[in-house]
């Protein structure tokens, strides 16, 4: 019976989360996060963080510490920084408790015993310092040999294990403390190069490379990042020009204009990335690709009981399962690799058990490249791009169609309905994606269409109707633009039709891209063919 599945639906059903085939749980359940870990995702950063917070409130500090450490095993994640901060707060609390115990012990013991204990402790400290010097000397020799064996780049032949005399590194840079920045591994934390306002690109690059050599010399196997900022106003104090210090607060890199990156898992040379408004084309494309996949994941989950696909390949199926025409390549490294966890090696990180599309899909990029994608919207060191679903806006007054994805805006001219059959205002979801859809009149819908219900955004060979009001209510786009738009708009994306587009926002042509260039650049070479035509004999009845 057609309506049987909805006949006995429970009023609480919309508030339930499906964790496996036969188990639904409510977010209002006090044991919700415990059940998520037990039945759905043992590594869920959100669940472990919430459990850690609860244990901390209950005074069960060992249990809280366990959950916080579990959160930090997943990097990047939105909860990494808070968990890292909590771990350090617990450590400080433990130190404080130990100090109190020590004072009580000293008060309870005689002065003679205290003198003996102090002498004994001093002797232990001296012995440990001697052993530490011996170990460091051996480690330094081993590090030099290891660097040579692992093929250091020829441009870094003069590496040293400690900052050289006269280096611009501050003393605290040589002993960076874990609590100074959350969100990255303690031994791979970023640094900040401070430059005077008038510093040119050539000098900035020279200093970045020199300081990167020093960092790589400490350990050629670790990823390194140095951000370059030009000081302004009161920040530009005498003696600060050319100084390199650890990044203590993510907001310090908000004004970064460049970053030097060394990622040995990707390449054996250091590279400089330019950030912000001047972001390279590949960074803009990766932002677009990230949001394209995430939008498709959201639509898939809406159609499949809130569950993401086991593989991204399930988004690329024959019509009507073509949420995407292809899985975009990650454009910074050019990789199409999909990994279950972050390693900075390029491609995508996909976690189908994640709670939302933004956490499920992230670019798998090392620090500096990722920073170029995130900035300037967020300077957080966490390796993620904020989730902003792909959307299309149509201005009937200006006859313009704007595609917004990952902060980039791409434009096409559009035709709208006649005065007697106007294109309706409103926000519509893409229900169907069809190549060469058949209508009552051959070719009426052009090369491709995005079905919105009674109307569609579709192609047309009638170039004269673009930029005018001649349709029966649909949005018309030239066939060439429509083919590119089709590739960049996933199933489920929102299309807003309005009299005019609100002022403000990014300008079209981000990164020097247009619709066709973006679609071509994101399509991976050798992408599998997908049948996106409707079955033979299918006739569509959009207004036209």
Structural commentary:
This protein is α/β, with parallel strands linked by helices. The protein folds into four domains: 79 residues, no CATH class; 89 residues, no CATH class; 90 residues, no CATH class; 132 residues, no CATH class. The protein contains twelve helices and 21 strands. A five-stranded mixed sheet has the order 5-3-4-6-7, with helices on both faces. β1 and β2 form a beta hairpin. The N terminus is likely disordered. InterPro entries: LD-transpeptidase, LD_TPept_cat_dom, TPR_rpt, Transpep_catalytic_dom. It comes from Paenibacillus chitinolyticus. Pathway: Cell wall biogenesis; peptidoglycan biosynthesis. This is L,D-transpeptidase. Keywords: Cell shape, Cell wall biogenesis/degradation, Glycosyltransferase, Hydrolase, Membrane, Peptidoglycan synthesis, TPR repeat, Transferase, Transmembrane, Transmembrane helix.
List the helices and strands and how they pair.
Blueprint: H1 4-7, E1 16-20, E2 23-26, H2 32-40, H3 45-57, H4 61-71, H5 80-108, H6 111-149, E3 191-195, H7 201-218, E4 224-230, E5 243-246, E6 258-262, E7 271-274, H8 281-303, E8 338-339, E9 348-350, H9 357-360, E10 361-363, H10 367-374, E11 391-395, E12 400-405, E13 408-413, E14 416-417, E15 426-429, E16 432-435, E17 448-451, E18 456-460, E19 469-471, E20 475-478, H11 479-488, E21 494-498, H12 515-522
Parallel strand pairs: 3-4, 8-9, 11-21, 14-19, 18-20
Antiparallel strand pairs: 1-2, 3-5, 4-6, 6-7, 9-10, 11-12, 12-13, 15-21, 16-17, 17-18
Helix pairs in contact: 2-3, 3-4, 4-5, 8-10, 11-12
Organism: Paenibacillus chitinolyticus
Pfam family, one: YkuD
GO molecular function: glycosyltransferase activity; peptidoglycan L,D-transpeptidase activity
């Amino acid at each position: 019976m057609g309506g049987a599945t909805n006949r006995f639906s429970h009023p609480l059903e919309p508030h339930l989360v499906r964790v496996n085939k036969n188990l639904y749980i409510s977010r209002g359940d006090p044991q919700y996060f415990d059940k998520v870990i037990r039945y759905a995702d043992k590594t869920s950063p959100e669940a472990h963080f919430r459990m850690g917070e609860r244990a901390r409130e209950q005074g069960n500090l060992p249990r809280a510490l366990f959950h916080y450490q579990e959160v930090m095993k997943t990097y990047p994640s939105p909860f990494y920084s808070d968990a890292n901060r909590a771990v350090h707060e617990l450590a400080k609390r433990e130190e404080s408790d130990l100090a109190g115990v020590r004072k009580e012990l000293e008060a309870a013991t005689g002065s003679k015993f205290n003198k003996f204990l102090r002498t004994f402790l001093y002797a232990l400290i001296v012995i440990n310092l001697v052993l530490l010097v011996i170990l460091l000397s051996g480690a330094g020799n081993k590090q030099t040999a290891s660097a040579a064996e692992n093929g250091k780049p020829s441009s870094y032949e003069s590496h040293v294990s400690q900052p050289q005399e006269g280096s611009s590194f501050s003393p605290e840079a040589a002993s960076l403390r874990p609590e100074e920045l959350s969100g990255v591994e303690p031994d791979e934390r970023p640094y900040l190069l401070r430059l005077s306002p008038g510093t040119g690109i050539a000098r900035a690059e020279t200093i970045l490379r020199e300081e990167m050599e020093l960092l790589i010399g400490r350990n050629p196997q670790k990823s390194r990042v140095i951000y370059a900022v030009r000081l302004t106003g009161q920040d530009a104090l005498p003696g600060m020009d050319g100084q390199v210090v650890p990044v203590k607060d993510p907001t310090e890199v908000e004004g970064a204009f460049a970053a030097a990156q060394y990622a040995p898992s990707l390449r054996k040379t250091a590279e400089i990335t330019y950030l912000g408004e001047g972001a390279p084309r590949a960074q803009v494309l990766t932002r677009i690709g990230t949001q394209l996949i995430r939008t498709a994941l959201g639509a898939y989950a809406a159609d499949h009981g809130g569950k993401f696909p086991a593989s991204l390949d399930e988004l690329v199926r024959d019509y009507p399962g073509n949420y995407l025409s292809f899985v975009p390549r990650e454009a910074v490294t050019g990789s199409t690799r999909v990994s279950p966890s972050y390693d900075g090696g390029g491609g995508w990180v996909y976690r189908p058990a994640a709670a939302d599309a933004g956490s499920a899909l992230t670019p798998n990029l090392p620090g500096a490249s990722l920073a170029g994608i995130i900035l300037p919207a967020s300077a957080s060191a966490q390796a993620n791009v904020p989730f902003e679903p792909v959307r299309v806006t149509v201005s009937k007054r200006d006859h313009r169609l704007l595609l917004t994805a990952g902060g980039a805006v791409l434009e096409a001219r559009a035709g709208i309905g006649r005065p007697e059959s106007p294109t309706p205002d409103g926000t519509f979801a893409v229900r169907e994606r069809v190549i060469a859809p058949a209508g009552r009149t051959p070719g009426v819908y052009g090369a491709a269409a995005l079905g919105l219900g009674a109307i569609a955004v579709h192609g047309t060979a009638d170039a004269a109707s673009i930029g005018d009001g001649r349709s029966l209510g649909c949005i018309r786009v030239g066939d060439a633009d429509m083919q590119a738009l089709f590739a960049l708009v996933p199933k489920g994306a929102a299309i807003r039709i309005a009299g005019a587009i609100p002022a403000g926002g990014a300008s079209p042509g981000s990164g020097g891209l247009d619709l066709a260039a973006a679609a071509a650049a994101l399509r991976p070479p050798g992408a599998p063919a997908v049948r996106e035509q409707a079955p033979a004999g299918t006739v569509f009845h959009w207004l036209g």
